[in-house]
């Protein structure tokens, strides 16, 4: 079995790395959060202080970090994995970052013999814990086949979608669809509430029809319970929609609805809600309509 390095033991990375240990992989981990590192050590993982040291010790390095600058730092910065690179080392970045950043990192690593895949995920913390996340993978098909088993130990679905960067383009598509859906549900619930119809009844009446969706089933109960604990934080979704706008401009693909929802999220950030779940988009519409939705 391949020896795996795992950098970034946050909400997602910690349960994902635990699933690799459960599947029998030998792990070398690191994170700024020493408690998370200790927890993995107690399960049998080794730890290392730099990405360079991890790269020297393993066959495959996985990262699960917040955004492009974090991945660039870990891959290409001082004591980064590039300094421990050798022919045949595989780097799988599972963070959601800009596709352009993935391509830039790949370009530098490939010169040192490192093969890179961008493999962001969808599903959130519960699916990371269950090992049922969906993984969308960009990069060389043979390298993909080589590490597919490792990815499957953390996932319910693993799909190759194209060259390096394609994984993160797919993730941006996912994030656009999710954000616009939540905004639509919020707009509709405030409309129903103001018109005197119980949004809970609306939800039950429509969830089996064409408006039904995974997003509706995940977020409507949270909105109706006024439970805005994350889940997926507004500030992470701002990061993803900002990357989506940059990418849409780069490729000449206007995204007017994404731009509008991004501005709604910035408004929520000004109101102090950036650490809440993205279902708090409901609060943006409540403010516009001067109301509060209740069951
Ligand atoms: P998080 O903030 O909980 O975890 C990130 C971890 O990386 C932290 O523990 C942090 O200490 C660590 N870190 C940052 N820089 C580091 C460095 N240089 N060296 C070592 N460790 C470092 O974030 P998360 O929620 O786990 O998300 C990670 C990625 O997954 C993001 O790109 C996010 O958009 C994506 N994602 C998140 C979810 C979700 O529901 N939370 C779902 C799908 C995808």
From TrEMBL:
Domain 3-hydroxyisobutyrate dehydrogenase-like NAD-binding: from-to ranges: 165-285
Enzyme class per UniProt: oxidoreductase
Entry keywords, A to Z: NAD, Oxidoreductase
Gene3D superfamilies hit by this protein: N-(1-d-carboxylethyl)-l-norvaline Dehydrogenase, domain 2, NAD(P)-binding Rossmann-like Domain
GO biological process, one term: glyoxylate metabolic process
GO molecular function annotation: 2-hydroxy-3-oxopropionate reductase activity; NAD binding; NADP binding
NAD among keywords: yes
Annotated EC: 1.1.1.60
InterPro entries membership: 3-OH-isobutyrate_DH-rel_CS, 6-PGluconate_DH-like_C_sf, 6PGD_dom2, 6PGDH_NADP-bd, HIBADH-like_NADP-bd, HIBADH-related, NAD(P)-bd_dom_sf, Tartro_sem_red
Segments forming domain 6-phosphogluconate dehydrogenase NADP-binding: 3-162
Superkingdom field: Bacteria
PROSITE patterns, sorted: 3_HYDROXYISOBUT_DH
Family: Belongs to the HIBADH-related family.
Protein name, entry field: 2-hydroxy-3-oxopropionate reductase
